[in-house]
Design the sequence.
């Protein structure tokens, strides 16, 4: 519908780079691709310094995300160095170190003006989805002015790579939408990377308690070190009962769903107190049963959200001020050339105990 | 757990009054009952001047509300004159004209302090439910100081009777929880009395459009006179398509559910725009399917609520200032002695076209 | 600090247009100027169809605004037709009818990302101030994508010209910052065009009363037709007493200052109720006395604001939906060639009773 | 206007207790007074276990608070044991350990219903002001149900005594009214007990920086240990310049005034960033100059507030959860019989370095 002015490109030689490429369900390769170039005046090309792998990338690899087609370079997270900017880019220049947002924002459409960048008419989640992504030596970033952030001097870039997606996702979809506030009792169902990101960022609002619920004792151990006040292994299917026991049968002020299946959404319904919030972060593949016959008069709020990354500037400040330590989520380190191995490790988290892997350019 | 001081009552003669009494599913009678007296120091006894019948009363008559037992006087709405007050009542005195709230608030418990009177530890919706109600010559009102409101001089008491329940219900559960704001497109599914109350009160926030959806052309006609900008008869099951057609396929900012069945909640899910709100008012008897596989990334908010009547003071001001005209909901008038007829008329709304009936003491 | 890519312009012939030009205090002329051209890729050039004159333009003419220098084309309001767009403009094309915002927003800086366009690092109020404005046949609009708005088909463009500045100013600085809500008592001190714009837009939130205060009976008469519930002529210096008399000595929930002098700000302090808001719209030339010895424990909020025009999309919808009728502010009509006369009329409002003048291209 | 039912009291013997009594400016005594009894059905009498002295008590001693008359028992802070309750009290019983709020709330008036207990029609700040206070062996607490809080089992009662006034004052008037949020830069002008309470409670919202400004190096040292990120001694009158230097000339998001004189309020005006907040806590004795000629277009918010103590339940939870450690404000300990000495110590803070003193019954 909308057209971008196409800058006239001289017929340039094709430059080759390495990238992690999706070739249909179960098939990926670390292979040669053409280095991206500026296509629109608002583009930047960024040389990747850090990237990471998201649970969503594993979903893609399973074939669950039909918008991702054969030949796509994956990845929507990373930190890098600006290599080239289009004529309309005014905030960044070659050589700037930048944080890449998983969400591309044009800043012009109705959704962007409302701060709902996730629903940008021409952006949103496109990196490593409908356009090539960050698991490569270089990536083209559309609307660079409003989709990149300056890396403050001396910042820990491993930590910042967590701000591309996982921290704002846990924070916006879980903590903000759940309206966590001082004194609250919060329960987070799911102690995977996103649930742990919600745990870390919930503490920005100083809840009285944060109860973590998961099937995996190792992840619950980690949760404890990251600030959980109580941990519940839900293997026996009685996590809701235990939450109610912990809360004088009142339930929790905020229940954050960080798994994406009917059972865990059901737990949230069972434990939310009157007047409370259920904040859904999980990516759901099927419908869930909403028990309105029990909830219609309970004054509860249920929210869904795709991360907008509107809070990235705030999260950056919080990391720099050491109010937030996302580095704690990183369990494994790789170099870019070992991205295939990084996928193996991240994909077998039950065994490797991987949470987030950091992949560095050198 | 909590004890109220019981004022010592002299052994008084039993005084008889008339009341509408529930005697199990399908059975009601206009019969003699003992006139209520002060039981707690914070009680008032109010002589009824106006009362009305609620859709909930019809549910009770069907046997759908198990907390209501044989012998209960029904009714939770009304305007009256204070007949007697307990020793701890300081805001009202004998002779004061008062609006009765359908929700009783102790003002002391955690829920009340948060403004969530509906979940008052000892109050909430008890009138005509767990204690005797307003469809009688007299009613005892617990926590009178915080459950009654002074009727401003010269006010239209028929109109005020609509503030006991239906106006705050439409406003709080629909308009406020749905966060209606100027410029919004709002759809209200269900043009019964509560849906129409939501329509009237939504206009306090000047939405650009209010689309009413119902199966009944008569009610849609009424909706038009009350400010609906578009009306859709949903008999053909295509109301969602038509709403999308009216909104450039974007959907509505706020979808208010005012029926209480899975189908209408489903329509709300189909028509809510990204970033929008679904505000449930309907009383649901069974679970609904929540299409999280479609909604998880749509940034929507779903709310449930039992009316708190925290906005009653504001609604009173708005009626006095003629910003709101709830009298328009009244279609039929009765005297108290004809309460049985009033039930017949209200219960057969399809034929009688009744919305709200007003029942006056004389 | 930031550089825009300069599109290479062929050496074009100078095209001449007519414009209202400031030549120092008290001196203005309707004279020939060079028609503007695209300077930055994000610019548009707009042919003016409607413009108007603002109280601020009169301040400029008095020499009160030092940023405005000799030779500047005045004007920051208008509606027009896109004549040409820069290479980076994607939302508008030649021939589009557009509303021009008085505030230019780059959409990229920290302030713009927060919705505080008034403090845009490179924009803000620049039209008719630090760059040439809209009182001309053509105007160059920087950051066109985020500083122009599409005119809906069939819209009343005279009315829309009120949305460039005065309506969002009254609404954002007065009504929103003052947090007007249903049931409130609002007082607006100053019934000039901005005060009346606050009066019109306050009604989007259905306050119970809006009391207008001014020295001019004619303006108060107009206020009455625009929705004021009470009017007070403050010539006798007793307006505060009268407001207190009208409000049971409690004062008002919201006091909107729409003049810009110490006396009127003083009235606001005298009439604000405990828990209330003072929303300053007036442009102040000197300090005022803040009576903290009286106000420190009164739980009041005082706000200042330069209009951000973030609410322009909502106001547009409200005008189209006929919830707002800004046309009512227009008292006089002129053609563009009579702009000098329009200034005379607008500048002598006491005699001409001018509120807003509309100036049309033909 | 309102009448409380007076419980019939048997003619009892006068029981004597010790109390700190005000006898006009500069005169106080630790002397015999009659032990208070229940006067209204909603009263409780509380035996004091902990009390403390407030800066306001020193103001009273100077004769600055004309509502306090000769013979008044001072004190509005404390923790104690319920000794007796009136007939209408339902939340507390003899023997309950309770936190006393400095603000008395009837829970029935318009102000209380809005959560603005400070402006309660019959309560507000009355303890140690218009009725006898807590610096005594016993105190009568009106509206006990809504003016006392249960002490959780095992709680540190010294710490809780800080929740009677100083913590909610710093939090509500400074942090909440100033809208402190994660990532913010906050400056607090005044590192006395209230400023330090604002510092402690600001951290519930994880600001990136909290800059403390004071004349006293000792207090700034303390501030550092309580979480201040930067400290500025303002003796040279250049604190505003230094704050601007620390913030890239942008100023702070929130400036909290915790002194109460024109100079410090002036500093707040000089350092607040565009879009920022000035939250006044200080008790002001004279007017201040509000520089509207500089601030009218800066989008700032200025708030005043008398503490409402609506956040006491949340602060209690935060202390129990160890998110807040108000005990850190206590510098000196006394027994009740040494209250006169405690005043000497607290009154000579420059020398004694006293912040808060705790006074225990035994």
Sequence:
């Amino acid at each position: 519908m909308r057209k971008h002015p196409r800058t006239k490109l001289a017929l340039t030689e094709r430059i080759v780079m390495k990238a992690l490429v999706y070739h249909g369900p179960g098939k990926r390769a670390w292979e040669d691709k053409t280095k991206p170039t500026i296509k629109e005046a608002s583009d930047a090309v960024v040389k990747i310094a850090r990237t990471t792998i998201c649970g969503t990338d594993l979903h893609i690899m399973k074939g669950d995300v039909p918008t991702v087609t054969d030949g796509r370079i994956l990845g929507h997270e990373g930190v890098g160095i600006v290599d080239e900017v289009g004529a309309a880019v005014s905030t960044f220049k070659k050589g700037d170190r930048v944080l890449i947002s998983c969400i591309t924002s044009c800043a012009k459409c109705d959704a962007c003006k409302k701060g709902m960048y996730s629903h940008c008419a021409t952006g949103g989640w496109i990196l490593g989805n409908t356009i090539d992504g960050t698991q490569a030596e270089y990536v083209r970033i559309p609307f660079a002015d409003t989709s990149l952030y300056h890396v403050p001097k001396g910042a820990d870039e491993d930590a910042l790579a967590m701000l591309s997606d996982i921290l704002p996702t846990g924070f916006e979809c879980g903590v903000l939408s759940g309206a966590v506030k001082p004194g609250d009792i919060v329960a987070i169902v799911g102690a995977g990377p996103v649930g742990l990101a919600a745990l870390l960022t919930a503490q920005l609002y100083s809840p009285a308690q944060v109860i973590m619920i998961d099937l995996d004792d190792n992840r619950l151990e980690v949760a404890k070190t990251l600030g959980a006040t109580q941990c519940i292994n839900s293997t026996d299917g009685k996590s809701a009962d235990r939450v109610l026991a912990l809360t004088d049968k009142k339930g929790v002020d905020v229940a954050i769903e960080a798994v994406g299946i009917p059972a865990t959404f059901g737990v949230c319904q069972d434990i939310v107190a009157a007047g409370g919030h259920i904040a859904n972060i999980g990516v759901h593949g099927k419908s869930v049963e909403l028990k309105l016959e029990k909830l219609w008069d309970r004054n509860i709020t249920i929210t869904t959200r795709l991360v907008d990354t509107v809070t990235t500037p705030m999260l950056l400040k919080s990391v720099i001020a050491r109010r937030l330590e996302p580095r704690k989520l990183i369990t494994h380190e790789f170099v870019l050339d070992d991205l295939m191995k990084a996928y193996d490790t991240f994909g077998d988290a039950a065994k490797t105990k991987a949470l987030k892997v950091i992949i560095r350019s050198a």
